[in-house]
Amino acid sequence: MFTTTESHSRDRILETALELFCRNGFAGTSIRQIAAKVGLSPSSLYNHFDGKDAILEALIERFNPAHSADRLSLPAYEALNRDPNAFCRKYAGDWLNQWCDPNEQKFMELLNSEPQRLSEHRAKFSETLFEREIKEVAYFFWGFARAGLMNAPDPVECARLFMGGLTFVRSQYLLWPPKPAHKETVARALDRVVSNFLHLTAPAR
């Protein structure tokens, strides 16, 4: 169990390391550089982490895409199992907050800049997003369809269509531009995707 002070120090180390890894690369960043920027001696930093590999593992654990799949089992989502509109809008809103987190953006930059070093982790992240999370969303869509609240003849493909629209917005506004768009701009684009998806999947009256 970490004390509040220890947790704060770990957070500062992780945020600083993430910034330096993105700027200089993992191999181009030293423990001494991280410690100096945080304001610690290298020996003090080693009280928190065994080395760069341990810091990298902690960053991966913190920003693991599995966390977004884990959200779907929370009571806040379970309470929406009869409300497709609220479910889809909450899901898009949670992704928006995650994507617009500056540290999340840096982590994605790191993930893409270190393909060999992080190849195993990238494979796990891909499996989480393209297998587990699609199935989790599809389960909600299956329930909506069964209750006559959504037209989803193939819940898995409907989930892929829904999530694909959201991730396309992310690529267009956050990943590919030289400078990420403002959160409000991304929110409007996501709202259009969600509204269109709900219109397309609305049950016949």
Distinctive features:
single chain; 205 residues; mainly alpha; Arc Repressor Mutant, subunit A; Tetracycline Repressor, domain 2; 11 helices
What's the helix and strand layout?
Elements: H1 4-24, H2 31-38, H3 42-45, H4 52-62, H5 66-71, H6 75-78, H7 84-99, H8 102-113, H9 119-146, H10 155-175, H11 183-200
What does this structure look like?
- With 205 residues, the protein is mainly α.
- The protein contains 11 helices and no strands.
- α1 packs across α2 (31-38).
- The longest helix is centred in the middle third of the chain and has 28 residues, at 119-146.
Structure in a nutshell:
With 205 residues, the chain is mainly alpha-helical. It has eleven helices and no strands.
The portion of residues forming beta strands comes to: under 5%
Biggest sheet layout: none
Structural class: mainly alpha
What are the secondary-structure elements, in order, as H or E?
HHHHHHHHHHH
Question: CATH superfamily assignment of the largest domain?
Answer: Tetracycline Repressor, domain 2
Inertia-based shape: elongated
* Helical content band: over 70%
